[in-house]
## 1
Amino acid sequence: MSLNAAIDIGSNTLRLLIGEVKNNRIHDICYKRHITRLGTGILHTGRLHDTPIEASIGVLSEFSSLISSYQVKHVKAVATSAIREASNSDSFIHRVLTETGISIEVISGQQEAELTLKGIISSLPESVSRRYKSLLIIDMGGGSTEWIFYKNNQRLDKGSIPTGVIKLYGQCIKTDPVSKTDICNLNNEIVPHLRALAKHVARSIDKGTCLIGTAGTFTTLASIDLRLDTYKREKIHLHRLSLSTLNKMGHNLFSLSLEARKNVRGLEPGRADLIIPGLQFTIKFMEFFHFHTLIVSDYGLLEGVLLDIE
């Protein structure tokens, strides 16, 4: 068995996937994920901060050990919004290489969208492909949100929205529990981005378009809806969430304090703050583009990176 490894160094979460690829399908061998909040503070200082740097290097050292133990043939590590924007990213990349042996490739928002599409398409069953004429894929990260419009087995358009859950939280959430003013501020920040996106996709969306969400916000919403005690990829992948379900979830979560949210079943404590902007973004997105249902994909960038290894 020839094993490869993909690493996604995101603004909020670091993820590792070790697997074998056959006929454009991934056979998972090892999957790990840790929340390190690498992008925390970048909005205000433009720099990666010491605490998340140390946490991230610790996690990457663990990943490096796993890669060695599985005798992986090729490794591809990609970094997204946090590393793209931080003024001290070169120093971080150098430390990671020196201390863990992992070489990091910083990818653009456009590249991120392409790899996300590759990962998602590889995982979709034929039933989804037959039922829907087109796909609108949203990958919401900590510092940016990538989107892809896909139809007739080809990508028609793609782009990157310059906001994510860490940025939205830092800009808009000022009280605990969140106030109506906080939610209003979130909407005021989110809606202009949706209007900009509408210029690209509004005319293409119809009743035959399927909305797919990938990455931590959407998988967390699925986990909450499923009331999972531990993260289970096989249950989360392709789980459906209705707009009415998300509104009910918001009514509950928005009324809770941060500490209370940490005890919500299915919600990892490390995401108890960021789930507020993530959920509100999802609700406004579905309302704005008139989607009643969202399909959650646990496949995305990480799987696309693994498939991209030559």
## 2
Amino acid sequence: NVIAQATLLKYDGRMPHRIIQDAMMRLFGLKISPATILDLTRRAADAVQSEYDAILKKIRGAPILYVDETSIHVQGERHWIWTFSTPSESFFVIRKSRGMKVLTEVLTRRFKGIIVCDGWKPYARFTNRIQRCWAHLLRESKELSGKFAEAVPLHNALKELYDSLTKALESDPPPEVRRYLCYLAREALRNWIRKEYSAEKVRKFIGKINNGFDYWFTFIINPGVEPTNNRAERALRPHVVLRKILGTLRNDKGTSIHERIMTTLATWGQRGLNSLQMLTEKLAS
């Protein structure tokens, strides 16, 4: 119970060690040191190792996977925390690389699913089964429309295209309708790409759209694929909060603990399971 409570206070409650010390004394009359708290979380991470491995296996076999990454510091050096998410699992690793080798390590070359992601180049080098994130696209076009008049109709057209497609897909149309919608969408987007733009930033934005042209409409043809990467971004938010609280992970041991605990807690949460009960059972088994 002590191990589970200390672990949840840190990773679910997002408390620094000093606050955990105070809470354990106040709630249970236990006087423990920061080093002890670290050791308790290590024991919890060891207890969920089999769960962590099982989640990795699920991720590698997922037909649709939402992937994203954000920076995190280990011993003061920049690393990247990667999330690989489905509706029922979230898997996290922390690596020094932001490149394709992390995708290959985690997913292996046997991965056959569709990846929903932003426009970071390693994804397209890893697979051609991609859905690019429309939320990123529309945020960037909206920002440009606030600076350049010629980007206003472009942003409005992209938003209208996105809204019309998501509305049309609400009824889950048959494959032939989906193929026709995809044809119309590609033609509409191609027309806007072909226009002349004077502002360099707008031209660069058009270049981004064009470079990922084949990846904007995967969600039309493939039922179940979401057009945005919001699922992966939501999975990373607790880590962003922890990053602000912790500042930097101290060593490889802390990194490994973070990966295993955050993976299992996130997955249990997605599955509607009680984290305290699940963790206590793992520790007792």
## 3
Amino acid sequence: TRFRQLHDVQAPGPELEGMARLTEQQLREDTATVEISPSQTSSGVLEFEVGVRNLTGHKFPTGYPARRAWLHVRVLDDSGQPLFESGALSPEGAIIGNDNDTDSLAFEPHYETIEQNDQVVIYESILGDAESRPTTGLLSAVKYLKDNRLLPRGFEKRTADPQIGAFGGPATDDTFGDGGDRVRYRIAISAGRRAARIE
């Protein structure tokens, strides 16, 4: 309601506030869930899975191809110090490890397994031009180079029309499909340190 006069908004304030609360509730409760499996450590390697379920009725995220969702995963020791972190944001707001932020002709691949800090799971669509270079220009885009946006429930990627399927790594990833994705994390832990918490 703060900018209602500037934008000549005619709807009453209480209705705007109510819609804002419903939108926040939808984003918080009806968009996606994230679950971390119980972890195991063997020979200094910590393993666990992160499962993401798409609760929407469409690919997530949807809309213009610049939209993306990603996993920010941290493993902390007993004192709360990070042993591992993937998907953190830089002070400038960039996703640390995203290849496309450092090279406009590259993009972060789809991962089934994450083993290093500079690997990050980013759910997004990457469009390509006629020379297979990444582009955000809709008029120059002729194909998908990557589309690992989370699929809605009931979407069968193997029989979907090629124009709306999963492109790149998710096409052959057996843990990516109907309604979600599971990503395995395999992290080497330094001797003498212990993973106490996964966020």
